[in-house]
């Protein structure tokens, strides 16, 4: 990496809901889960009860589809007081397989935006979740050749970003991260002294919305669509050089 | 890494069933699975039917406990003709949680052997499977400080090793891999021109026993216990320098 000039030397991209559609499919799977257990009990809060089980299991399962499906099976047994049929359990497992099989659908303007950034800075992909599934999605996206490195991590916190900066050979002040999650993509990078471009997505998992930007907001830009990324990056880059 | 002198410049270690006990727990979980479905059907081949489902799902789930448990749930529905109760499905999910929670138990002599090798060569850990679970096991093992890098990969084939050698900055001929699986640890490294020390474990998953060493056998040593690793490495190292 080029560390000799001032300014930004490396740009990281998040993947799910930044480059391609993801949460929509999870939302659909959750709606289908609610229909399945809805045949046994009349509950307005099946979604919240599922989220409670997911949250409880997060420290054991980590992120990703497989852990979510195991939590769905467990929540379905709980919610139905163990009345759910084996056939309906199987439907839940099939929901998960559907999520894993889903083709990767790039969000509008993504290819052009990543190409434009990659023409000016080296770019890396940093995504969390299931190693096997994320690798498959990166492969299917057709974008993998643009990225110098693909990093799949178990958690996107300041500790992880600091380790990655050391591996990449850049200082935090030379790094900008592009992503849809304030909690995972923006806050930890700003905290370390880096830069961020926030691209909100129309739907976000409850777990990711719970974030506070304590400081560094002056090193962040929010954009409404990924098409605005090149100009936001130019703005941050100029600031980083000044 | 030191690439200037001839000989071996980097040693890689496999983790599961090389550094710590793993397959034993999977075998126990499978026996428990067979007891659970055995209450519904009188089958001698429940284990084979489970393995068939696991193998079918491998391209979708990858390796690791969570995929195995999802395959167990699916196999249980299949084997019992959808008669398995929700309570027994829940017991299967709990089997999986037990596997994920199990404390890491180092195999005898492992700490001394790794320390001895790490005193002479830089060492890295290369393991496949679930990112989240493998990271937790490395953390719990108390060995992570000995390793320069921890690489968790989705598949251990020649393609993956070649990518890692490029990231590590070593040639295949400078790399030796220590592990219990001919298929995952030894054959692909020998194929690329590297070195291998095979440490067989008393029990091996069916999937890992299916390997043929086509060439490079002269660059491999088999040892009966990890305590013999230092002398096996000295022998390979002398050969690599000659």
TrEMBL record, chains A, B:
GO terms for molecular function: hydrolase activity. The lineage of its organism: Bacteria, Pseudomonadati, Pseudomonadota, Gammaproteobacteria, Lysobacterales. CDD domains: HAD-like. It comes from the Bacteria. Keywords: Hydrolase. It holds the Pfam family Hydrolase. The keyword Mitochondrion does not apply. It comes from Thermomonas aquatica. This is HAD family hydrolase.
